[in-house]
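Note to self: user wants both folds in one dump. Writing first protein now.
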Amino acid sequence: MTEKGNYPDVLVIGAGITGVEASLLLSNSGRKVHLVEKTSYTGGTVIKFEEVFSNMECSTCMVAPIQQELLQDKNINLLTLTEVEDVKGSSGNFTVKIHKKARYVDMQNCIGCDACFEPCPVSLKNEFEEGLSERKAIYVPCAGALPNVPMIDTEHCLRFKGKDCKACQEACMFEAIDFKQK
């Protein structure tokens, strides 16, 4: 029997409240954590609710301290818009293949000013708010989203439908919109 090396890095799939809490606990015990989330934000389903049972606490207020801790933790590598494609190996020695989708907004350059929203000519129902409000093709899914950086909905953005629209890019004075991002 041959013994394979164990690697201390940990992969947590899903950045809902449970995934974030697990990542923080693992990080506090000295582990390097890679937190993978398929959506563009953390908080999961809980962040969609206005209030959470049993004490009817504001969900954003409940999640905000945990998200702040996540944001400041140097041992946690947060990967949003990312999905696990394949897992190989055995206990303590896995190789994981992931696919990260483009946000088309440079997270380093964007300051979250929302100047790119208004000039976008596309308006559609906001799925996050169950269609009760509208959003643009460039948007932040919800208040308190982490990371608080917009993303471009390629399914509805005119640029990705072959039209010559650069409205959001021209409105961004920080050059954060990058249609070539992979």
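First done. Writing the second protein, which came from a different request thread.
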Amino acid sequence: MKAHYTLSSFLICLLLSANLNAQEVVNGGFELSNPQGMARNWITDDANGKLRIGLTKNQFRSGKASLELGGTSVGEKPDGIGIAANLYGSSSATRVKSIRLSGWAKSSGKLDSVSLFVQNGAKIIRVKGTSSSRKGWNKLVLTYNIPDTESWYRFYYGIELNSNQLVWLDDLALSVNGKKIQDPISLYREPKARELAWLSRNISPVQLVAAGKPDGNLSLIGKAIGSARIIGVGEPTHGTSEVSRLKLSLLEYMVEHKGFTTLALEESIASCDQMNRLLNTENPALKDSLTNMPFYKLWKTREMLEMLVWVNQYNLSHQKKIKFIGIDSEDLGMKSSRRMLRDYGERNSMDIYLQTRTVDKSLDSLILLSRSSMDNEKTIGAANQLKRNLERLDSLVLVEANHAGRQTAFELSSYVRVCRQWVDTRFFRGNRDQFMAENINSYLEANPDEKIFLWAHNFHAANVNKGGQRTMGGFLKEKYGDGYFPLSITLGAGTYMAAADPSQKSWKSYKLEQPYLGTYEYIFSKMLPGNYFLDLSTAKGSAASWLEIPMKQLDLGYIYAGEEHYQYHGVLGQSFDGVLFIRNSAASHSLIN
């Protein structure tokens, strides 16, 4: 059915962007509302605009609200089925064996056009109301014992309506494998006075200052990181001006006072290598280079340009230079890496040039096959052939290292490694976060005296290692221990920049959703006005135990999708060693628009 197909497509996007260690939120009492007046965590399909779906306080079985579905035009049958649904198991590794879904429904007419449902892929199980249902609230119960021939790890569940009558749903309950799914208590409990008092005693004010100005109390962060070799500085979005300004101030402090010598960006290695060369020259056209080079468009901002200008000025006036490197395996189509290898080969090694051209042809064949299927036998065979050609290229680079300079040899091997990572990510379930950590490890092995200031999203910087799933920060923490210091930056209010759609041709400013109960930012916002730093190593005792409770964190991507602004992403007290809270921030300024 069209409605289910639409919802299924949307759900695939949710699964691809689901955060690790997700908590299950049923919100079956429908007491939690998002800014659009819909049940928080729920998604909808309004039958091409013919149905109205949202919360109402006019009808409820308990509490103060229920979910209401109804036609927008009296007497007009909706074009398709209206759906309100929630997702279970967005990152679950536990196999689902049984499901029980129950809820209380009430209708302005008959209930035979109403169904509770669960769905996994094309498999849909429904239980319908009946035309003989009594007036008032009627209980609907769906049970499904999943046969051994089916593998369910995640599914969505909810209510369907295929008429224009008014229907209300309340007190929905979900049990999986015989256990009732309970909402996290943090969504309903205000922070206690002693918890707020502890936070007030342990935070330290931080000023937002321009580079070259006094450090704004950043020395407290320097003290907290101790002798760490890597500081992973996160951000909740890739598009807030104050966050970038604070990162630049922090970078300056870490370079001048803590001996940090490398700035590593969540960007492709080849692009950053090209920029690094410019940063060591006089009067480089940095704005033109930033806008014209194949950098991710989210970095093409006035704020990133200010950072590059500062690094350039620093390098021209200091003997010890700041190195600017990339760490990401997301080199679109391996274009930048292949170009760097071709250019080097054409100038210095015909063997490397010709083998890179062989890689080009292998990639063309693979892309052509992948348009029909990403995982059939021919496509995977072509992917393996590409990997073999890359292995041959890697061996040629190894030979080249005998007479090329050490830095050149390292760069060439990095480009080949990124190509392999790109193939593994696309066709062999490779882990992007693991590859980013590997790229950092390779850099430090080749440059043992360097200390890295890592500029990335909170999601990647976080130390998350649970259930067989790890972020980049989780890999780094496992390898370096106290030598890796993950620092979260988060926000209380303001605006952020994001691409208006996947084409990324237009970048706009969007308002951040205010923190709400059940988010860490809600508690941080309870403090007096201003920005501050919290050293999480001080989080001891029961008054700080809320930092060990799963709560949502501000977490947004670079393409606007109208998604929830706050996501479950590990436990703050375990994911990070420190937090910088910025009260208000404005959107970054794109150089593309």
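Dump finished. Worth passing along: The mean pLDDT is 90.
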